[in-house]
Amino acid sequence: MSVAEVKKSAESRMTKSLETLKLNLSKIRTGRAHAGILDHVMVDYYGSPVPISQVANINLIDARTINVQPWEKKMSALVEKAIRDSDLGLNPQSMGDNIRVPMPALTEERRRELTKVARSEGEDTKIAVRNLRRDANEALKKLVKDKEASEDDERRAQDDVQKLTDRNVAEIDRLVAQKEADIMTV
């Protein structure tokens, strides 16, 4: 492995950590309805758990109501049960073939709890990025020890990895602050 490969590996793994953070933050609900909130809810489809989006159309009726329209009539009850049993605190209502999912208004206390969850996700991602930095630095030291890279190359590469880490930590802070603002907006 070369110095360039170590840096490229660290960068790609840090990018994956950021993508995971974005996904996790998207699961934290704000006061507004959005179709993505049901993405991780699984429904039993002929013995296999599949995301609701693979068995139904999901769209917004208004800012606080999601409409779920299963493609098969017999799936309505299963979809409704899956939404109710999810940890989202939603209470779907069946209306013929459609299922309406009203988003309850968030209390001030619940908003504060959700901001803590968002901060926690951000901290976990920062820890992951710092661990990747440590792994990259150890790999660079091993290259010097094995005489595959010079100490000057190692020092420059460590500086590059540190700059990459700083950029990613700043992006994590920005994403978490943006999510907190979304949550606290009434």
Distance between the termini: 51 Å
Instruction: Tell me the major beta sheet.
Output: 4 strands, antiparallel
State the helical fraction: 55-70%
What structural category do the secondary elements indicate? alpha+beta
Q: What is the number of beta strands? A: 6
CATH architectural label of the largest domain: Orthogonal Bundle
Q: Could you state the order of secondary-structure elements as H and E? A: HEEEEHEEHH
CATH first level of the largest domain: Mainly Alpha
**What characteristic shape results from the CA principal axes?**
elongated
Strand arrangement in the largest pleated sheet: 3-4-6-5
Q: Could you say how many structural domains there are in total?
A: 2
What fold name goes in the CATH topology slot of the largest domain? Topoisomerase I, Chain A, domain 4
Strand content: 15-25%
The helix tally amounts to 4
Radius of gyration: 22 Å
| Mean of residue pLDDT values | 86
Protein name: Ribosome-recycling factor
Domain Ribosome recycling factor: 22-184
Subcellular location: Cytoplasm
Organism: Paralcaligenes ureilyticus
Give a structural overview.
The protein is elongated, with a radius of gyration of 22 Å. It has helices at 3-27, 75-85, 108-145, 151-184; strands spanning 42-45, 48-51, 56-62, 65-70, 93-95, 98-102. The protein is built from four helices and six strands. The mean pLDDT is 86. The protein is 58% helix and 16% strand. The strands form two sheets. Strands 3-4-6-5 form a four-stranded antiparallel β-sheet. A hairpin with a 2-residue loop joins strand 5 and strand 6 (98-102). It has two domains: 3-27 and 107-184, Topoisomerase I, Chain A, domain 4 (Orthogonal Bundle); 35-102, Gyrase A, domain 2 (2-Layer Sandwich). It is of the alpha+beta class and 186 residues long. Helix 1 runs antiparallel to helix 3 and helix 1 runs parallel beside helix 4.
